[in-house]
Specification:
This protein has 4 domains: 82 residues; 90 residues, no CATH class; 298 residues, Vaccinia Virus protein VP39 (Rossmann fold, 3-Layer(aba) Sandwich); 121 residues, no CATH class. Helix 2 packs antiparallel against helix 5, helix 8 packs across helix 9 and helix 14 runs parallel beside helix 15. Strands 11-29-12-28-27-13-14-16-15-26 form a 10-stranded mixed sheet, sandwiched between helices. Strands 19-18-20-23-22-21 form a 6-stranded antiparallel sheet. Helices cover 31% and strands 23% of the residues. A hairpin with a 2-residue loop joins strand 22 and strand 23. It is an alpha+beta fold. The chain is elongated. 32% of the residues are buried. The chain has 22 helices and 29 strands.
């Protein structure tokens, strides 16, 4: 019956051309609610002239019919259409965007919206209660939550409020001397240019935190690395890693869109992802950053061919890889720091078979040098070819004389002698030069010898397949026990060294257990880590306490890390923190009811229909009153909506929030807004 009425209602509303896009078959639900609030004449006439809707949504007071606005909006909320309003077609795919010079872009439902959505699995469902007459108990029920979307055109006020900088509280500074308990933050350090020079762990919703950073850090971040939810639906840790496809794309786009503005012009973005969303993320990043700013994708070996991966080997190829999707802010300003890894002599120099006998002649007289083979040199210097250690020592000692040649297609060496060395100045600069032999450039082995982790070794440059990073025994790395989802410190070391230099700022807004923060700190970079989830003893701030105290796991030993530095911990100021505490402290049912009534408007958001229903019908139910106080508290607590519950910085002085004078002062200092 209800389903039939729903379809009749929306068929009726189709008659208003403002509400229905015939080309995309989409219903503009947000506009409908707006028109209902305004008592729009056309909407009233449609509803009043239909017998069923008139009976359902109008009440007669004497001779006047009054629209039951809240009941109508409640019905719409509870009976959303699958194709309710978005400006975009109800499909995911590539389309031509006339606003972007007819570029091909990725479109999906709700792309034009802002998704604040929570990141814990608990945030993915609505919790409510029904009384079961058979058992005489209130049963907890759950329903998959409809993610909260704010449309950029029709709800601009809500978005402006959402994106406002947030007040900050619970400030603590952790130092070498006070790495466990922390100490009071007396001031926020800035350099001579006014740039904040602090390492931060920020607790709170990362979308709101990113918007809170943009005033002070716009154009200052050199590297963003994130390891976001993969949208697999099967992860065992706290992320709501089960977004529907469209929600996930909106979630990612909202955050990347504001994060992009934080980057310097020569910055890079590394996003770690698996196969599930890799292709869609690539197209999304092409649109946000420009296809021309795509740098590369790297394949990273992240697990072994063992365990549960082998259980279904007859049905699917075991997955052991993930991807790093890499973009630059502006390719014209990008400069990558080459990274080298150790390898054997044969791997690095399999074609380096020539040996240079310079005699007493200098580089200026290179035409008098003699060329022999490496084997001939071993014989001349009486090195036993069967003694592998002696042969390697000889080659390493004489790497500046061992060479190969390579063709240079852009150079013409036809006039140079074929059997003699020739010295060529680079761009006419006598201080910089190279050699040519037999019409090809000369490459010396010494150029591929590096000092890595204190040891001189043959080395090869890192390419776009990384299968050399150890992935075993990561569970306790950094002193935190996050078993799944944690990334190796050596992986982050490589990324940070490729994209930054000492003193640059690194941002990770999916900080997790704090691997990015830990490695950036050890490598002398400034860093910001944002995390919403609570891993208890495995939170990023806990890991960083160990780092400044001299943690010896991860990359510590290879870089000789001894500890040092400091960081500041703070939280986005939550609006509902006080409500949760008061519910916990309540001593009676009456106190709970009075508390709920007084705090409803302050802490329970208008769109939380479950809380509204709870307030209007369940609280006074006799069966609810019979429940034990602790059970009542539990149910009251479930009615709290934990989304979008932070205090705007602009409202920091409002007495109802009871922010401390110190929190207000530090928030003002952070935003450079004391005056």
């Amino acid at each position: 019956m209800e389903i039939n009425f729903k379809s009749k209602l929306f068929e009726l509303l189709k008659k208003d051309s403002r509400l229905w896009n015939k080309e995309t078959d989409e219903f503009n639900e947000t506009l409908l609610k707006d028109l209902v609030d305004k008592l729009d004449e056309n909407i009233l006439e449609l509803l009043f002239n239909n017998a069923e809707t008139k009976e359902r949504f109008f009440i007669k007071i004497k001779d006047i019919y009054v629209l039951k606005q809240n009941e109508l909006k409640f019905f719409i909320d509870e009976n959303k259409l699958d194709n309710s309003f978005t400006q975009l077609a109800n499909k995911i795919g590539l389309t031509i965007d006339d606003k972007k010079d007819e570029k091909v872009v990725l479109n999906w439902p709700f792309k034009d919206c802002v998704l604040e959505g929570g990141m814990t699995k608990e945030d993915a469902v609505d919790i409510y209660y029904k009384f079961d007459k058979k058992t005489g108990e209130w049963q907890e029920e759950s329903a998959k939550r409809k993610e909260i979307f704010f449309n950029e055109i029709l709800a601009r006020d809500e978005i402006d409020r959402l994106e406002d900088p947030k007040a900050l509280y619970k400030w603590q500074r952790f130092t070498v001397e006070n790495s466990e308990k922390g100490e009071e933050v007396k001031e926020i350090k800035r350099d001579e240019n006014g740039v904040i020079r602090e390492n931060f762990v920020i607790k709170g919703n990362n979308l709101l935190a990113l918007h809170s950073l943009k005033e002070e850090f716009e154009g200052k971040i050199k590297l963003i690395y994130i390891d976001p939810p993969y949208n697999t639906g099967g992860d065992s840790f706290g992320y709501n890693d089960n977004f529907n496809h469209s929600s996930w794309l909106t979630f990612m786009r909202n955050r990347l869109d504001v994060a992009k503005n934080l980057l310097t012009e020569d910055a890079m973005v590394f996003i770690q992802i698996n196969d599930v969303e890799f292709a869609y993320l690539k197209v999304l990043m092409d649109e946000l950053f420009g296809r021309e700013n795509f740098h590369t994708s790297i394949t990273v070996k992240m697990s072994h061919l063992s365990g549960t991966k082998m259980a279904h080997k007859e049905k699917k190829i075991p997955k052991i890889k993930e991807h790093l999707l890499i973009y630059s802010k502006n390719k014209n300003n990008l400069r990558v720091n080459p990274v080298y890894i150790p390898c054997s002599w044969d791997e690095a120099f399999d074609r380096y078979n020539s040996f240079l006998d310079k005699g007493d002649f200098s580089d200026e007289d290179c035409n008098k040098w003699k060329v022999i083979t490496v084997n001939e040199a071993l014989e001349i210097y009486s090195i036993d070819k069967k003694d592998e250690k002696a042969v390697l020592e000889f080659k390493m000692k004489n790497a500046h004389l061992i060479f190969r040649t390579a063709r240079n297609r852009s150079a013409d060496y036809s006039k140079l002698p074929k059997d003699k060395f020739s010295k060529i100045n680079k761009n006419g600069n006598k201080a910089e030069y190279y050699f040519v032999y037999k019409g090809e450039d000369v490459n010396f082995a010494i150029d591929k010898i590096r000092k890595i982790n204190g040891k001189v070794t043959p080395a090869t440059i890192v390419g776009d397949i990384w299968n050399d990073i150890a992935i075993n025994n990561l569970s306790n790395e950094g002193g935190v026990e996050l078993r799944f989802g944690k990334k190796p410190e050596k992986l982050l070391k490589r990324i940070i060294e490729i994209a930054t230099k000492e003193g640059d700022i690194v941002l990770d807004y999916h900080a997790g257990s704090g691997t990015t923060c830990a490695v950036a700190h050890k490598l002398g970079r400034q860093w910001i880590g944002i995390e919403q989830l609570d891993y208890s003893d495995n939170n990023p701030e806990e890991r960083m306490k160990g780092v400044i105290a001299g943690d010896q796991t991860g990359i510590s030993k290879e870089i000789n890390w001894k500890g040092g530095g400091d960081f500041v911990y703070m939280q986005l100021a939550k609006w509902n923190e006080e409500a949760k505490e008061k519910i916990t402290e309540a001593k009676s049912y009456d106190e709970l009811v009075n508390l709920f009534s007084s705090l409803y408007e302050k802490y329970f958001l208008n769109y939380n229909v479950r809380a509204k229903d709870f307030k209007e019908s369940i609280i006074e139910n006799n069966e609810f009153k019979k429940l034990p106080l602790e059970r009542q508290k539990e149910i009251f607590g479930k009615m709290l909506d934990l989304n979008q519950m932070y205090i705007n910085f602009s409202e920091r002085n409002d007495k109802k929030y009871e922010l401390s004078s110190k929190d207000i002062e530090l928030s003002e200092e952070f935003y450079n807004a004391k005056n």
